[in-house]
């Protein structure tokens, strides 16, 4: 067991992670960063990674921590072991996970006394609706509130008032509204209408995949409008935004993001097998996606559906799933030059985001446990473009799932790509 459709945190979810935004904005919190680690298959390595996370938080002198995970079952062993490693160091903490009735913890310890359950369904079970049991803003508010109360009980004399506020790294996030997405003879974005030459985009994509990604047999591309919800889709691998770096590096500079359109990556094997772990999400679009959730499109969004046909068996391999994500990012990359070139005056909204140090405030870190087992249990970090895939490194390959610290602005700038 690991991650099913309803608990899956998509790339879009990471891009808009509610805990990162809330912790960054709270004036009583000195948000130190996000500790990202993969869940491991080997028990010995689970313990090793957990101990390294505990030691890291102790070295960071944190006053408290939030531990979040989007998978369950066997992965709850990682979750429990990390919580134990942190708790043994007398660090107040809160856990965030789907539990419900189906995902009761396979192991527990005395430090698992404050868990925010992400279950949103009456049955309390995993289902095939994308985003149904994922974190929303209210879950983040609960987790932060519980943690602050625990810290206040431990340190009743502590002042939560920051002595100062130091702005360190600035990220400008410019959002551009898309009024319509349509098929056309040319691929371009004119500031209002996103036009796609679907045949040309697919041809370029297949040409680049041909040599290095034989797992991909075919790619189709279609535009689904807000009214196109009664259509069949293959199993959803991911939702992601269309974003491009206009200046600077990840976590700094300027990033342009399109609003009103999302990329939906779906896949199927040649003989019809739907890639999945705990239930596949193929079916009628309107019935298989919980629209409006942080990791899913809005009801009013246009969807660019990149549908990948994989060779027989490749929907069950790590390489096949990675090839599908490669295909989607190749298509998105063809749009980025126009997005990158948009002007400040064309933006519907411009947000100035800072990594901020608040000495004297409560020092808190967020631990994100992400899939790190391969083949629909995987996560990639630091792609070439925000929320992209090309250039990223799997948490398995980068450090064998050992933690990496990411700044809040890097996280908000799309350095985490979901392969689950």
Describe this structure in words.
The two termini are 12 Å apart. This protein has 2 domains: 11-170 and 354-418, no CATH class; 172-349, no CATH class. It has 10 helices and 22 strands. A hairpin with a 3-residue loop joins strand 7 and strand 8. The strands form 6 sheets. It has a 6-stranded mixed beta sheet with strand order 4-3-2-18-1-21, with helices on both faces. It is of the alpha/beta class and 420 residues long. The chain has helices at residues 11-15, 18-25, 43-59, 75-87, 137-154, 198-212, 285-288, 318-340, 395-399, 408-412; strands at 29-38, 64-69, 93-97, 115-117, 166-177, 180-183, 188-189, 193-196, 216-224, 232-233, 235-240, 243-247, 253-259, 261-269, 283-284, 302-310, 349-357, 362-370, 379-381, 393-394, 404-406, 416-418.
């Amino acid at each position: 067991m690991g991650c099913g459709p309803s608990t899956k945190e998509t790339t879009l979810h990471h891009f808009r992670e509610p805990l990162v935004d809330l912790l960054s904005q709270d004036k009583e919190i000195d948000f130190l960063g996000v500790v990202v680690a993969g869940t491991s298959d080997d028990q010995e390595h689970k313990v090793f990674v957990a101990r390294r996370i505990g030691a890291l938080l102790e070295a960071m002198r944190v006053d408290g921590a939030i531990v979040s995970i989007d998978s369950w079952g066997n992965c709850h062993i990682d979750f429990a072991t990390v919580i134990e490693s942190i708790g043994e160091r007398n660090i107040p903490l809160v856990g965030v996970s789907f539990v419900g009735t189906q995902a009761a913890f396979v192991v527990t310890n005395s430090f698992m006394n404050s868990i925010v359950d992400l279950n949103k369904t009456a049955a309390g079970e995993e289902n095939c609706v994308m985003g149904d049991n994922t974190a929303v803003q209210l879950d983040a508010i609960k987790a932060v509130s519980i943690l602050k109360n625990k810290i206040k009980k431990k340190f009743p004399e502590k002042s939560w008032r920051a002595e100062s506020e130091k702005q360190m790294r600035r990220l400008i996030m410019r959002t551009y509204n898309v009024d319509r997405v349509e098929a056309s003879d040319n691929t371009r974005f004119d500031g209002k209408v996103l036009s796609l030459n679907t045949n040309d985009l697919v041809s370029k994509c297949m040409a680049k995949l041909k040599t290095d990604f034989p797992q991909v047999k075919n790619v189709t591309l279609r535009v689904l409008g807000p009214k196109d919800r009664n259509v069949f889709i293959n199993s959803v691998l991911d939702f992601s935004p269309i974003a491009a770096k206009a200046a600077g590096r990840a976590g700094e500079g300027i990033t342009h993001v399109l609003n009103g359109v999302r990329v939906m990556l779906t896949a199927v094997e040649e003989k019809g097998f739907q890639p999945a772990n705990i239930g596949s999400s193929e079916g009628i679009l309107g019935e298989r996606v919980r629209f409006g959730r942080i990791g899913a499109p809005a009801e009013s969004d246009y969807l660019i559906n990149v549908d990948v046909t994989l060779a027989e068996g490749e929907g069950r391999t790590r390489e096949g799933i990675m090839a599908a994500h490669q295909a989607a990012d190749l298509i998105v990359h063809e749009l980025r030059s126009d997005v990158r070139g948009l002007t400040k005056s064309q933006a519907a909204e411009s947000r100035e985001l800072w990594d901020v140090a608040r000495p004297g405030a409560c020092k808190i870190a967020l631990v994100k446990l992400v899939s790190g087992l391969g083949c629909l249990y995987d996560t990639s970090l630091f792609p070439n473009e925000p929320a992209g895939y090309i250039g990223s490194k799997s948490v398995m390959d980068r450090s064998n799932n050992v933690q990496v610290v990411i700044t809040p602005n890097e996280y908000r700038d799309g350095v985490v790509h979901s392969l689950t």
